[in-house]
Write a structure and sequence with these properties.
This protein is an all-alpha fold. Helices cover 70% and strands 0% of the residues.
């Protein structure tokens, strides 16, 4: 029974970690797209696009 609970907890933790990774990447891509389209800055001129939550 404990082994099943550990597996379930690991699956849930993996899902949460995967979602956070996905959300950070999506936000970073959205910011880069916004800067390129709305501010007319070429991608080569974007120095950093690190996301923090």
């Amino acid at each position: 029974m404990r082994r099943k609970m550990r597996i379930i907890v690991l699956i849930i933790e993996g899902g949460i970690s995967g979602y956070i990774f996905y959300a950070k990447n999506k936000l970073e891509n959205d910011v880069i797209e916004h800067v390129m389209t709305e501010k007319n800055i070429p991608k080569e001129n974007i120095v950093s696009s690190e996301v923090f939550l």
